[in-house]
Write a structure and sequence with these properties.
The protein has 4 domains: 245 residues, Histidine kinase-like ATPase, C-terminal domain (Heat Shock Protein 90, 2-Layer Sandwich); 173 residues, 2-Layer Sandwich (Ribosomal Protein S5, domain 2), CATH 3.30.230.10; 141 residues, Rossmann fold, CATH 3.40.50.670; 53 residues. Helices cover 35% and strands 21% of the residues. It contains 21 helices and 25 strands. Strands 2, 3, 5, 6, 7, 8, 9, 10 and 11 form a 9-stranded mixed sheet that branches. Strands 12-13-16-14-15 form a 5-stranded mixed sheet, with helices on both faces. The chain has a 5-stranded mixed sheet with strand order 18-17-19-20-25, with helices on both faces. It is globular.
Length: 695
């Protein structure tokens, strides 16, 4: 039996017994984390909140990358708790020589303590920082570590980074692994509500990156009272709650296929290479790519399985090798004329879906959130390995190669045509702010920091907004109907659209290679569309335009979505506004449900399109008349109503748009407005019950 157990451990990875307290290196204390959390997790908004999950998950994922684990579970529990389980080696619990306390306590309560700095902890990990578990602990009102190791179960609990007691052995076990549970501190995070779909999307990606790693995500927040300490995996409780499980053997090829599931590939075979540098198994380059019939590109870079949203040296090496290889192959095989210009990097990227994944023993990121890879050697690694393999792929697959080259040639010609059209517009001075569009009601302020641009739907809403605004700081630009779908439109066609040209001129940044965010005339670009299907469609079109061609404006946090009310409620002389059906019912009063309201003819109705109903509510032995007005569009409000509900900075609700919002909107829009009819039908059937009908 002992030999069988030893063989089982060997399958998980080499030298399991060498992972002990001596593997843990301590650099410094934990004090700075609560004082400046942004230094460690980037922000205390939703992005930073979910970053806590990624940090704990990454530790389990690193166990899987090292071959020590293959089954990870992430559960959302009641009271905004997160529970992450893996079947790895278990965090060491023996006494650490330097700290004189358990290695578990050292990892959970000391900054820069972990198995990622040397020794036998990890050959490849998510980074050198080693601050993940301790930072999460410091930013949580409650945390609990449960370790199953060497036949025993060990537990320690914490509050805002400090232990409640020493590590205790609480029982025996046949399992191996670690369970980390934490509850974010509402004093640090304004909103501690986790987004299940966001977590699912992130972890699905991780499952593609580590072959044969099982990841289960469970939303048990509505499970009622739950004693999660009685089980290793929550899934063993067989709760009837939302869950997703991912397991992929295809790796990056499967991820590319998933990303292109709603696109039309222009070549059959997906390129793929995985190779170690100079035979070093701890330094590898893995790339998969495929071109599709699209004008945008999707390049997903990872370093040690950490997604690098800002790219880095591995992306630079990839782009250099891609452009060089395509130019070389096209010239060598006479697929372009001698007089034709070389492809640029933008030409080579058009319509490309690619995943770049590198693994390094010693890795450097720019910042704790690991958004950008800084390791210098990654550039030459990727350029050499990918360049050689892609050149061979083109030679061995001439039909695929010809289709790819034709796609890039088309991009080159389109780029020239777009440049000519743009230069023609620039010569007329239209995009340099010389002539602001006549539809724009500009603000008096010349300070971009103080200025806001409301993009509204239609002249009716535009007229109301112009009357109700603060002329000093608020500008209004009405759009006539739906703007051009730019998803498959090139720059020359875009600039032929009066609506888009007006918007570009109003913002002041220009577009394309002349884009300059320093010339942005407003630091709040507010999309104020109606609360109906057409309004949502226009908003999605605008988000797609901004995401594709004005990405730095979104990255800079300058784009917002206005939240106008759905209902106006009159209770006697009191006027209230409600932004949802639930808020309407709450403000009407407990004694009156929506079905208690009876339709009655109205005499002085402001607009024929308004829904207005009246009823009576009995409160404390007296009858009070209640009138409810349903807004269908901004144009149905008078200027005072629009100001006090949607435009007044003191009371209005604005949703700031980030990159994830735009990317998700773009993906849904591509399904609904693209050429993939089966996907559109499936999406509508799957989401029909979630729709809010306005009939």
């Amino acid at each position: 039996m002992a030999k069988e157990a030893e063989k089982k451990r060997e399958k998980k990875g080499s030298n399991p017994h060498s992972y002990n307290a001596e593997s843990i290196t301590v650099l410094e204390g934990l004090d700075p984390v609560r004082k400046r959390p942004g230094m460690y997790i980037g922000t205390t908004g939703p992005e930073g909140l979910h970053h806590l999950v990624w940090e704990i998950f990454d530790n389990s994922r690193d166990e899987a990358m090292g071959g020590f684990a293959n089954d990870i579970e992430v559960a959302l529990l009641p009271d905004n708790k997160i529970r992450v389980v893996d079947n790895g080696r278990g965090i060491p619990v023996d006494i650490h020589k330097q700290t004189k306390v358990s290695a578990l306590e050292t990892i959970m309560t000391t900054l820069h303590a972990g198995g990622k700095f040397g020794g036998e902890g990890y050959k490849v990990s998510g980074g050198l920082h080693g601050v993940g578990a301790s930072v999460v602990n410091a930013l949580s009102t409650y945390a609990r570590a449960e370790v199953h190791k060497d036949g025993g179960v060990y537990v320690q609990e914490y509050s805002i980074g400090k232990r409640k007691s020493a590590v205790k052995k609480v029982g025996n076990t046949k399992r191996e692994g670690t369970i980390i549970t934490f509850q974010p501190d509402p004093g640090i995070f304004p909103d501690t509500t986790f987004d299940f779909e966001r977590i699912v999307n992130h972890l699905r990606q991780q499952a593609y990156l580590v072959k044969k790693m099982r990841i289960t995500i469970i939303d048990a927040r509505e499970a009622g009272k739950l004693d999660d300490t009685d089980t290793f995996y929550i899934r063993d409780l067989e709760l009837e709650v939302p869950s997703q499980t991912f397991y992929f053997e295809g790796g990056l090829v499967s991820l590319v296929r998933f990303e292109n599931s709603h696109e039309k590939p222009i070549h059959k075979n997906i390129f793929y290479v995985e190779k170690a540098t100079n035979g070093n198994e701890y330094e590898t380059v893995e790339v998969a790519l495929q071109y599709v019939d699209d004008i945008s590109s999707r390049v997903l870079p990872f370093a040690n399985n950490i997604y690098n949203s800002e790219g880095g040296t591995h992306v630079t090496g990839f782009k250099t090798a891609l452009t060089r290889t395509l130019n070389s192959y096209a010239r060598k095989n006479n697929l372009v004329s001698e007089k034709e210009d070389n492809f640029t990097g933008d030409d080579a990227l058009e319509g490309l879906t690619a995943v770049i994944s590198i693994k390094l023993r010693e890795i450097q990121f720019e910042g704790q959130t690991k958004g950008k890879l800084g390791s210098v050697e990654a550039q030459s690694m990727v350029a050499t390995i990918f360049g050689d393999a892609f050149s061979t792929f083109l030679e061995e697959n001439p039909d695929d190669a010809k289709a790819i080259i034709n796609k890039v040639v088309l991009a080159l010609k389109a780029r020239k045509a777009a440049k000519a059209a743009k230069d023609s517009v620039l010569r007329k001075g239209a995009l340099e702010g010389m002539t602001l569009p006549g539809k724009l009601a500009d603000c008096e302020s010349k300070s971009a920091e103080d200025s806001e641009l409301f993009i509204v739907e239609g002249d009716s809403a535009g007229g109301t907004a112009k009357q109700g605004r603060d002329r000093r700081t608020q500008a209004i630009l009405p759009l006539r109907g739906k703007i051009l779908n730019i998803e498959r439109a090139r720059l020359d066609k875009m600039l032929g659209s009066e609506q888009i040209k007006n918007l570009v001129i109003a913002m002041g940044t220009a577009i394309g290679d002349t884009f300059d965010i320093e010339k942005l005339r407003y630091h709040k670009i507010i999309l104020a569309t109606d609360a109906d299907v057409d309004g949502a469609h226009i908003r999605t079109l605008l988000l797609t335009l901004l995401y594709r061609h004005f990405r730095p404006i979104i990255d800079g946090g300058f784009v917002y979505i206005a939240q106008p009310p759905l209902y106006k409620i009159k209770k006697g002389k009191e006027i209230l506004y409600a932004y949802s059906d639930e808020e309407r019912d709450r403000k009407v009063g407990k004694d009156m449900k929506i079905e208690d309201i009876s339709d009655e003819p109205q005499e002085d109705v402001q607009n024929a399109n308004e829904d207005q109903v009246e009823g009576e509510v009995k409160e404390k032995s007296k009858t009070q008349k209640v009138s409810i007005q349903r807004y269908k569009g901004l144009g149905e409000m008078n200027s005072d109503e629009l100001w006090e509900t949607t435009m007044d900075p003191k009371v209005r609700l604005l949703k700031q748009v980030n990159v994830e919002d735009a990317r998700e909107a773009d993906k849904v829009f591509d399904i609904l407005m693209g050429t993939d009819v089966p996907s559109r039908k499936s999406f509508i059937q799957s989401n029909a019950k979630k729709a809010t009908l306005d009939v």
